[in-house]
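Quick log. Single chain, no ligands specified.
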Amino acid sequence: MTTTHAPTTHTNTEATVSDFFSLLKPRVMSLVVFTGFAGMWVAPDASTLHPFLACVAMLCLAVGAGAAGAINMWYDRDIDAVMNRTKSRAIPMGRVVPAEGLALGIILSIISVMIMGTALNWLAAGLLAVANLFYVFVYTIWLKRSTPQNIVIGGAAGAFPPLIGWAAVTGDISLYPIILFAIIFFWTPPHFWALSLFANEDYKRAKIPMLTVTAGARSTKIQMLIYTLVLLPVTLAPWLMGYTGTLYGFSAALLSGFFVFTSIRVLTSDNLKNARLMFGYSVFYLFALFLALMIDKM
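-> predicted structure:
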């Protein structure tokens, strides 16, 4: 799909630090950092990593994720301007010049990868670079506007943080962090589709082929349930394979079981309130699940 970036209709004023910080998508960044820290926490010999280096790794992860978010906001400024959910962002509102947003994203992305490689190791830096490139080129530029499977494939970019956190400690990758990657990968579609159910008119207006737009609400809800059902055994895998103890296993079963319940409730009702509740729970769910991993390790 050809993208036409229309100029913003708002008068540009001098951007503030807060405006530039908002380009980094701080809410998304917090989830990225938390799951990355969890990957670092559960890695073997995590206690041998100097606290300062651990902080550097998480700062690089946060800045790298924020940089990708800034580039995303630069590229999507045309559709952000017509969506109620995003029209007040700094670039559509004219508070930040598009070129400045792009420059911020590119510079921070390069800096975060280079510092990660120099201070920690180049595997972690390489994974951070791949995650950023995947999010920008595969998801934002290619998939988002071209296929209803955009969030399924493109969502893999958000699943990299546990791999990066683990690699920052160990310098390698094993099956355990790959399972953590899979948890976020299968969590992403029902999470975003719950959002798209109550933001469907926004996506229609922006001509984004979300599944709710192309296949309708009923088909989307069925696929959401399928993903939550698949997610349940995936979240139990760390316990079943002996990586974690009973505390995590019980928490995963309880949290994932309720996630399935919220999906069933969305499927059996036309009330958009249920989709909003499922979306809110999905964020809590991922935080709680990875917190359980960390507590179990202690």
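Residues 6-11 have pLDDT under 50 and may be disordered.
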